[in-house]
Write a structure and sequence with these properties.
Blueprint (H helix, E strand, L loop, with lengths): L3 H8 L4 E9 L2 E10 L7 H42 L4 H22 L3 H10 L12 H4 L7 H8 L1 H15 L8 H10 L19 H15 L11 H11 L6 H9 L1 H10 L7
Antiparallel strand pairs: 1-2
Helix pairs in contact: 3-4, 3-9, 3-11, 3-12, 7-8, 8-9
């Protein structure tokens, strides 16, 4: 059977193609593909020119990969820090980030989210509560209901999260990193509500779609998980709650997307079950 790239070339009716491998420190990491709708277009002169262009493109890709790997490493480290400060386990973060990806894929067409954006939402969603690092244990780990003053302090974790992320990006020289705004928006706005009753009073159109997505994914997993102050709800109970709040607290499209993916949700729950160590 022909390779996937060959099938795609045929589907696009290309008449000729040139494939250039990319290497970093002698290690192969990908290809550049140059295709044309004309036959015999890749003569010696053209190939010489494309080798120069390809070299420059390879350098750009290498720079992008290096920046991405640096940020992914920081994200993973910070995620581990969040796990150790809160009762939200690694399994919770795995589940909710996978729920976020499910929702993002479902609403991608309406909100013009390409595959790259969907994957960044998946990658960055575990850092939604990174600002809790700055909240004292007496509040963060309190088993009972928070007082009004304590809740006001708890609410600052979103702003602190934004500040921590900005500091991380500056220290890595990644201020202009593609999709860094997705990371900031998730940390800053995942507690906003469609009707403006959230932490900072943003309303529907003011709330970035990535924050709406993470809000639904996070609350659904919190409802269906055992916490020190509650038993786990059934999926049906959690879906009913989200539906009741759709359009007021949560985005309707995001709620509908998660419910539509029930089979995938249950598969994620089975894959990332809590063990006896949490």
């Amino acid at each position: 059977a022909p390779a996937e790239h060959t099938r795609r070339i045929a589907a696009m009716r290309y008449q000729s193609g040139y494939t250039m491998p990319m290497f970093l420190d002698g290690e192969f990491f990908g290809f550049l593909f140059f295709n044309s709708h004309r036959k015999d277009v890749f003569d010696e002169t053209t190939l010489h020119y494309l080798d120069m262009v390809g070299h420059l493109l390879s350098l750009l890709v290498i720079h992008e990969l290096s920046a991405t790997r640096s940020l992914v490493g920081i994200v993973q480290t910070a995620t581990n820090m969040v796990q150790h400060r809160d009762f939200e386990t690694g399994s919770h973060l795995d589940r909710m980030s996978n729920y976020a990806r499910l929702i993002a894929k479902e609403v991608a067409k309406k909100y013009r989210l390409d595959d790259d954006i969907v994957e960044h939402i998946f990658m960055f969603s575990p850092l939604h509560d990174i600002g809790k690092i700055g909240i004292s244990d007496s509040i963060l780990l309190k088993p009972g209901k928070l007082t009004e003053a304590e809740f006001d302090t708890m609410k600052t974790h979103t702003m602190q999260g934004g500040e921590i992320i900005d500091t991380m990006l500056r220290s890595l020289g990644l201020d202009g990193f593609p999709h860094a705004d997705i990371l900031r928006n998730i940390a800053l706005h995942h507690h906003e509500a469609i009707n403006g009753s959230g932490y900072n009073g943003l309303t529907d159109d003011e709330i970035p779609i990535e924050a709406k997505i993470v809000a639904v994914a996070d609350v659904f997993d919190a409802l269906t998980s055992v916490r020190p102050y509650k038993k786990a709800w059934s999926n049906d109970m959690a879906f009913e709650f989200l539906q009741a709040m759709a359009g007021s607290k949560f985005d309707r499209d995001c709620v509908a997307a998660l419910i539509h993916c029930r089979d995938e949700v249950e598969a994620i729950q089975k894959r990332f079950q809590e063990d006896h160590l949490g």
